[in-house]
Amino acid sequence: MEKTKKPIELIVTLLLVSSAVLITSRVWAQAEAYSGVTASMERYLDNCAVCHGDRLEGGVQGIPLAGELEHGDSLDAVVASISGGFEGSGMPAWRDIFSAEEIRSLALYVLETRENYDYVTSNYDAPLSIPEQVFETTQHRFRLETLVADLDPLPFSLAPMPDGSLLLTEKTKGLRIVSPSGEKSALVRGTPRAWDDIYRLDSRIDIERGMGWLFDVALHPDYEDNGWIYLYHSHRCEDCNAISRERERPVSMNRLLRGRIVVGEWRDQQVIWQADRVHYTLSSDVAAGGRIAFDDYGHVYFSVGMKNGMRGIQDLSTPWGKIHRVRYDGSIPDDNPYAARDDAYRSIYTYGHRSPQGLEFDNASLQLWGSEHGPRGGDEINLLLPGRNYGWPLYSLGMDYDGTPVDYGRELGIAFELADIEQPIVDLTPSIAVSSFIIASGERFPAWRGDFIVGSLKARSLFRIEIENNRFLTRETLFEDVGRIRDIEQGFDGEIYLLIEHGAGGQIVRLVQEP
Fold first, then answer.
1. Where are the alpha helices (DSSP H) in 115-229?
2. Domains of the chain, with CATH numbers?
3. Per-residue pLDDT tens for 190-236?
4. CA separation for the pair 450, 257 (Å, rounded)
């Protein structure tokens, strides 16, 4: 990297990072909200591009950074390379020029650019075309087959049924049944209302916001005997607590129900878990979590994400920023970590969560796993252990969007020891916008058994992650740049389904193994 400066405008920076983005006043507002990200872009273009190229393609004086990196491509390795330099090859050390935070942010920019990730767009309207090719991976060959191509743009969850059909939730529409041949039913009558008053912020014009959405749908482990279906949604109300009356606006909070579907109608509804209405908030459902998982011991787990900003996530008397556990009927298990405390939600299983995206119980290891979004970097796959603190908003392996470390403990007046924060098993930095996942167990892809098949939103890619003895081993990209994967499910016959969201309409796609 050459220590020379060249002037560059933010508009040019944005165009170099994402040529598909139309530079408007709204995009300027969005860029300002991510000042740390744009600052690292400018820092690279001003100081590094003269040697390594505007898009890491290399130059007369420097090697390309887009290919294999001789000294490693992890965040720590790139930070070390920038900090210490390589005197023999003419690469200067930057540790005395930039702060440690600036070097880490610069390293993140290099890694994000290598992977074609950026924070100007979430690729919600990127071209969606399901490839016809056969994907060659280390263990299986497969192709993608579209089952349904005309879903609402905002689908959320699939639940495979024993007869080969699928239950489908569309966040702002409702619950449907998709036949094995791909035919969609009308909306199931009688479910909680799904609200569709979507809005967007000028600071993030590509992310939809609202409240009163449908989230996960899942079958009771004994569904074939009892017919129970669990439906997770954001329960919305008006004039129902102090903040809603003060602001004259609706409020909402996640709620877990169960019922049965009889001739296209939702019946026998029971409320399994509902927060006290004093804790309903004005926050959008965009980071509300919304996943369900069952174990075989009578428990259902569910996630509640950031439904009130940073405050309250570390507070056991609030429901948000937590993974909860109750019995199938909603009663509190005696061995829940806080079952005996009057000052806590007794359903809390773990806390310190930012934006949970996936939740799975591994019946082979008898362990609960979750995935969640970090800020800039810091996407995680966590082994969820009872009573443990997963850190948000006190600590993260990622950085905040303004380029500073995550350290809201000072602002919130919360002291903590790093040793008390449970660290992720898999750190996904730079952020892929991790979404749902499965722990493969079927016969269709036998070499993947026990592996995590993980989706992504922003990266529009599918990954296979191998974890052994609770340690991360390898990550393989199964395909990339296809579509935003909102959910992954495995059918009763072992088929793997992907639920893809897109501005022009969502899709259900399945993986078909090739010999």
1. 223-226
2. 10-114 (1.10.760.10), 135-514 (2.120.10.30)
3. 999 999 998 877 655 567 889 999 999 999 999 999 999 999 999 99
4. 30
